[in-house]
Write a structure and sequence with these properties.
MetI-like, cell membrane, Inner membrane ABC transporter permease protein YdcV, 278 residues, 72% helix, membrane
């Protein structure tokens, strides 16, 4: 085994510092959330307990933690489903050139470079001036789609750009209709990418702050509620909330990855059974 060079250790140390910079704040919040009853917002810790997690489930003097949590979940699911459906439709549409496709593509990408707070302001003004209700489920939903849809469409553009059209041709040769080709051939093949788009859409919506700030109306989503609590709550209960929301995010990601793994194994098993049958 050859001895490792000095550059290897330098790069390893740099990578370790990068990981610490990336996850250090989250780890710090997680540690401070396990303080005792007399704990504060900074080190040193005052005891170790689950007190603040229990306190989180009690009636809080300020804020609506669990109401905002439910709203963020519902909004995230709405954005996720819409992002997946529109991204697939857009990806299929852009497989062929059509009049105005180039302009439409750049209009989609432009939504990513416009400052999020300006998008929030514009959508909020549009709804209020039109006499529509500024609410997290309407204006907030629309504002968040301006953030998630471009990412979903870019993923689908890349997926369909390398998609082998011979599978569709074979399905049509066997008598499949266009809808049957999409349902039984195209969608199963791109299923892993759809899971990625769904996960992307949900996570981007779940923690979106700027584009929801002026479009949520009278009811906060969880990021807005946490921001509001930082000006009122001066106890580690805020850290306990951050720890639980982080664990929830990891649970969602783990669940999606598990479903994808099980799906791949089932496909592999079905292909193996078909091969033995032949």
């Amino acid at each position: 085994m050859e001895p490792r060079s000095r550059s290897f250790y330098i790069l390893s140390a740099f990578f370790g510092l990068f990981v610490l910079f990336l996850y250090g704040p989250t780890l710090t919040i997680g540690i401070l959330s396990f303080q005792g009853e007399g704990g504060g917002l900074t080190f040193p810790m005052r005891g170790v307990s689950m007190y603040w997690f229990y306190d989180l489930f009690e009636q809080q003097a300020v804020g609506d933690i669990w109401g905002s949590f439910r709203r963020s979940i519902v909004l995230g699911l709405m954005v996720m489903v819409t992002t997946v459906v529109v991204s697939v439709i857009g990806g299929l549409a852009f497989r062929k050139k059509f009049l105005g496709s180039g302009i439409l593509f750049y209009l989609i990408i432009t939504a990513l470079v416009i400052p999020s707070i300006l998008v929030s302001l514009g959508v909020g003004l549009l709804f209020s001036q039109s006499g529509l209700n500024v609410h997290w489920s309407t204006s907030g939903f629309g504002a968040q789609l301006t953030w998630t849809l471009p990412f979903g469409l870019l993923i689908m553009f890349a997926v369909f750009n390398r998609f082998d059209k011979s599978y569709e041709e074979a399905a049509r040769d066997l008598g499949a209709s266009p809808w049957q080709t999409i349902r039984y051939v195209v969608l199963p093949i791109i299923a892993p990418s759809l899971i990625g788009v769904a996960l992307f859409g949900f996570t981007l919506s779940y923690d979106e702050f700027a584009r929801t700030l002026l479009t949520a109306g009278s009811y906060n989503t969880l990021p807005l509620e946490i921001y509001g609590m930082t000006t009122n709550v001066t106890s580690p209960v805020l850290y306990a909330l951050g720890t639980l929301t982080t664990l929830f995010s990891l649970l969602i990601i783990g669940g999606v990855l598990t479903l994808a793994l099980l799906s791949n194994r089932r496909k592999a098993r079905a292909g193996s059974d078909a091969g033995r049958a032949v």
